[in-house]
């Protein structure tokens, strides 16, 4: 333990200027190894018709993390980079769980039971004028597209109701292990793209025809120039419990005084052994309004699910938040959200419990510091 702390201290001293990890597809700046992170603590309250809950959580504005990153200039316009980023539950000091083969069975050990893992990102890349090839654990392209066009990103009580769908809990909805990805260069006149393939790493003779379990691909194509930013993405993952297919489209326009955002997401999980397919369709419209040293965030999102049971549960959510920047690295924030359920839905916020077709309200108040 003592040697580990000394090693981290050396890396911190040798690192370049610290910065928050904000670019999901970024390449570290050339130079020394950097140590970086975010510590985000959140007071959370949720109320529903059955039970309410109050707790101290984390990651209400940005995900808490601790990481190392660096880039070496290889000459001739080429470089090599690495990124190791661990999720941290700073409210109790535990680490976040990872998944070594993109399969449900590998997620048996939850947060705090695997120690500190580089679950958020752990990759090495080769970069040049032709783009980047990235190897390791990384975000899936469809998730990058989803979080880009949500005023609340994918953190906190105000985030899109897409994250309430069953498909949002699958191993590759956010990240994929054992991935090989190609990212286009940044000089394509505003166009950008990512192609990713990831493996479950099963034997060819795996029992029950599960040799492809946890294997899949993702693709994202986007365009960003001036005030316009749009993107579309798809992913397809093989699972023993039913293949998952996701596609989404989103966009935003910066008017100067405000930024308008919108997105649509469709998530389908195929039924197995004669079971019906499960689908979830969700959309969001929202905006960001800078006010002095602060930022107002607002969104309206809906979700409709269908599992072949003759009903289509629906939910609608209104969310409003404010972020006040005390400095470039420290911010206070508050968010309130209210979900209205119908047609058999019972989505509840911040750990509360609500009855079928009932309301739920959630509050976040937090402090975030990045380094």
Automatic annotation (TrEMBL):
<dbReference type="GO" id="GO:0009279">
    <property type="term" value="C:cell outer membrane"/>
</dbReference>
<keyword id="KW-0732">Signal</keyword>
<feature type="domain" description="Porin">
    <location>
        <begin position="7"/>
        <end position="343"/>
    </location>
</feature>
<dbReference type="InterPro" id="IPR033900">
    <property type="entry name" value="Gram_neg_porin_domain"/>
</dbReference>
<dbReference type="Pfam" id="PF13609">
    <property type="entry name" value="Porin_4"/>
</dbReference>
<feature type="signal peptide">
    <location>
        <begin position="1"/>
        <end position="19"/>
    </location>
</feature>
<dbReference type="GO" id="GO:0006811">
    <property type="term" value="P:monoatomic ion transport"/>
</dbReference>
<keyword id="KW-0812">Transmembrane</keyword>
<keyword id="KW-0406">Ion transport</keyword>
<dbReference type="InterPro" id="IPR023614">
    <property type="entry name" value="Porin_dom_sf"/>
</dbReference>
<keyword id="KW-0998">Cell outer membrane</keyword>
<keyword id="KW-1134">Transmembrane beta strand</keyword>
<keyword id="KW-0626">Porin</keyword>
<dbReference type="InterPro" id="IPR050298">
    <property type="entry name" value="Gram-neg_bact_OMP"/>
</dbReference>
<dbReference type="GO" id="GO:0015288">
    <property type="term" value="F:porin activity"/>
</dbReference>
<keyword id="KW-0472">Membrane</keyword>
<comment type="subunit">
    <text>Homotrimer.</text>
</comment>
<dbReference type="GO" id="GO:0046930">
    <property type="term" value="C:pore complex"/>
</dbReference>
<keyword id="KW-0813">Transport</keyword>
<protein>
    <submittedName>
        <fullName>Porin</fullName>
    </submittedName>
</protein>
């Amino acid at each position: 333990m003592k040697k580990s702390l000394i090693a981290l201290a050396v890396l911190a001293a040798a690192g370049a200027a610290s910065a928050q990890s904000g670019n999901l597809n970024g390449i570290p700046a050339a130079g020394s190894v950097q140590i970086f992170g975010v510590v985000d603590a959140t007071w959370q309250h949720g109320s529903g018709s059955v039970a309410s809950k109050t707790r101290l959580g984390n990651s209400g504005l940005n995900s808490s993390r601790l990481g190392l990153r660096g880039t070496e200039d290889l000459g001739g316009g080429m470089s090599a980079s690495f990124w190791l980023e661990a999720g941290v539950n700073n409210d109790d000091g535990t680490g976040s769980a990872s998944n070594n083969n993109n399969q449900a069975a590998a997620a048996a050990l939850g947060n705090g039971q695997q120690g500190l893992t580089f679950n958020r990102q752990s990759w090495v890349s080769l970069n040049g004028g032709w783009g980047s090839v990235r190897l390791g654990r990384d975000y899936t392209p469809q998730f990058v597209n989803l979080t880009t066009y949500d005023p609340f990103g994918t953190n906190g009580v105000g985030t899109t109701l897409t994250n309430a769908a069953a498909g949002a809990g699958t191993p590759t909805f956010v990240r994929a292990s054992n991935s090989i990805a190609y990212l286009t260069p940044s000089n394509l006149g505003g166009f950008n793209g990512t192609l990713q393939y990831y493996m479950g790493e099963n034997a060819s003779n795996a029992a029950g025809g599960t040799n492809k379990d946890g294997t899949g691909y993702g693709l994202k194509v986007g365009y960003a120039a001036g005030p316009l930013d749009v993107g579309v993405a798809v992913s397809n993952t093989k699972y023993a419990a039913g293949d998952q297919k996701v596609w989404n489209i989103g966009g935003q326009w910066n008017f100067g005084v405000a930024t308008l955002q919108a997105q649509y997401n469709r998530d389908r999980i195929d039924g197995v052994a004669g079971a019906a397919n499960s689908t979830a369709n969700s959309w969001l419209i929202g905006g960001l309004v800078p006010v002095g040293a602060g930022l107002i965030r607002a969104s309206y999102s809906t979700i409709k699910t269908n599992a072949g049971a003759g009903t289509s549960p629906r939910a609608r959510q209104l969310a409003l938040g404010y972020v006040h920047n005390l400095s470039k690295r420290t911010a206070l924030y508050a968010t309130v959200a209210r979900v209205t359920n119908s047609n058999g839905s019972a989505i509840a916020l911040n750990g509360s419990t609500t009855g079928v077709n009932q309301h739920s309200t959630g509050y976040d108040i937090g402090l975030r510091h990045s380094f």
